[in-house]
Amino acid sequence: MSRLRERLQDWFDEWKKTARLDYWLALRSVTRQGRRSAIGLVAIAAGVVSMLLAAGFFEWNYNGQREATIRSRIGHIEVVRKGYMDAGAADPFGYLIPEHSPARKLIETFPQVDTLAPRLSFNGLISLGESTISFLGEGVDPDREKKLSGALTILQGQNLSSSDAKEVILGQGLAQTLGAKVGQNVVLLTNTKSRGIGAVEVRVAGIFSTVTKAYDDYALRLPLRTAQQLLKTDGVHMWLVLLHETSQTDSTLEKMREKVGDDSLQFVPWYDTAAADLYNKTVELFSRQVFVVKVMIAIIIILSITNTMTTAVRERTAEIGTCMALGDTRRTVMRRFLAEGVVMGLAGCIVGVIAGLILARVITAIGIPMPPPPGMAQGYIAGILVTPRLVFDAVVLSVVTAFIAGLYPAWKASRLEIVDALRHAR
Predict the structure, then answer these.
(1) Are the C-beta atoms of residues 384 and 57 closer than 8 Å to each other?
(2) Separation between Cα atoms, residue 30 and residue 192, nearest integer Å
(3) At what angle do helices 330-366 and 2-32 cross, to 10 degrees?
(4) Where does residue 295 rank: exposed (0-12), middle (13-18), buried (19+ CB within 10 A)?
(5) What stretches in the chain show pLDDT beneath 70?
(6) How far apart are CA 204 and CA 208, in angstroms?
(7) 234 class by beta-carbon count within 10 Å (0-12 exposed, 13-18 middle, 19+ buried)
(8) What are the beta bridge partners of residue 381?
(9) CA–CA distance, 350 with 118 (Å, rounded to integer)
């Protein structure tokens, strides 16, 4: 075992010494042929900049839509009765959970939890004058919703004021369809837990919008106490847990499932909820577009470096013949040309990343006006978010494609015959 370790260490030391020489010579070759190398470097840098800007634009949209969805409707984790996600719509009163319980108190003690808000969902009819339409209602705790619904935009009027006020806020589309305005009274009708009809008259306190237009067309919110009186129940359908950071979702989810120990409860992460369906589909669509951009950039880099290095092989044929006559093996020649391609790819990537970061900041400062996307109610000002992962992807893409691009020229250089290569100089 010790002898094998010694051999591996010797091989590694020899490889390190050889690699240092190969990449030093590669750097000298790239800088010596400045004009030709510059063409390849510009092509690589332009490809990296294009990738960072395109992927950064999509990343900004991912981040904005994700946080807006979480902080306007669903929180990071939904805690519901088991089976509610599948059968809750058909039997909403069969899956109620106590508004206060030991499990809720335990969840609120987790250091990652910012706030926990109860939510009671129901549907029914809303009437104003002679107009009556259906709605999707949510009973909420106004005080706790200030954090949980931070991305919910009040377009007119004001948000809910207290947990027992006789008031309601309407989605923008619902208010337009009903013809309701702030300050008017509307009547809500719904089925109660005892299979009867519940009714309540409430004042329209405000009109809101979220990132999802389809939700705004049917949704309304009213204080939790008023909703419970309307439905004649003291339970809720879910606890919405808002964390300090979205990145804490998976780790906190596992801890909650392990420590709460209530088999009747189900913990659902935000990305598995129906409300996150639009976000998930958007990410899937944009990811395909980013992949196409990466493929196009890889093709550009391969063609540019292949052309540059093929020209270099043709111009340096005599030099290659001299090196081989002095003892360099075909493997050594091939290895050094591959190192030259990697150096060119890495140099172009560094230039491209720096230029991309600068352009991303400038463009974000100016802003990109965007029209309302499908399924959203209003336009927005977009930016470009370059993350460490995108920079890493750019480095890997440029270096790997540069290595692949150098394979053919390096192989061609290594197959030269010494006599023919030396005669080429005459």
Answers:
(1) yes
(2) 78
(3) 70
(4) exposed
(5) 1-17, 19, 22, 34, 151, 372-378, 418-426
(6) 11
(7) middle
(8) 369
(9) 50
Q: Which residues contact 268 (CB under 8 A, 6 or more apart)?
A: 77, 78, 79, 80, 85
- 196 DSSP 8-state letter: S
Residue 214 CA to residue 67 CA, distance in Å, equals 18
Type of residue at 171: G
Alpha-carbon separation of residue 282 from 33, 51, 247 (angstroms): 45, 19, 19
Helix or strand holding residue 302 (H, E): helix 277-315
pTM, full prediction: 0.72
Q: Where are the alpha helices (DSSP H) in 84-163?
A: 84-87, 102-108, 142-148
| pLDDT of amino acid 94 | 85
Interior/surface letters 121-157, b for 16+ CB within 10 angstroms, e for the rest:
bbebebebeeeeeebbbbbbbbebbeebbebbbbbbb
**Taking CA 361 as the corner, what is the angle to CA 356 and CA 362, rounded to the nearest 5 degrees?**
100
- Asked if residue 88 lies in contact with residue 205, where contact means CB atoms within 8 angstroms, the answer is no
Classify 208 as helix, strand or coil.
strand
What are the structure tokens assigned to 264, written together? 């009747």
CA distance 23 to 16: 11
Cβ contacts of 316 within 8 Å, gap of 6 or more = 413
Structure tokens belonging to residue 363: 């463009």
As a whole number of angstroms, the distance between CA 242 and CA 249 comes to 9
The answer to whether the Cα torsion of 300, 305, 308, 313 is positive or negative is: negative
What SS3 state is found at 370?
strand
Question: How much is the pLDDT for 37?
Answer: 74
The answer to whether residues 398 and 346 touch, using CB atoms and an 8 Å cutoff, is yes
pLDDT, residue 204, reads 93
The per-residue pLDDT for range 159-174, each reduced to its tens digit, is 888 777 889 999 989 9
Residue among 246, 319, 311, 263 at smallest CA distance from 68 = 246
The Cα-based distances of 101 to 92, 107, 143 in angstroms read 20, 10, 19
Distance CA 215, CA 219 (A): 6
Q: Tokens standing for 394?
A: 């750019």
CA dihedral 137, 139, 142, 147 (to 10 degrees): -80
Token pair, residue 60, equals 């900004």
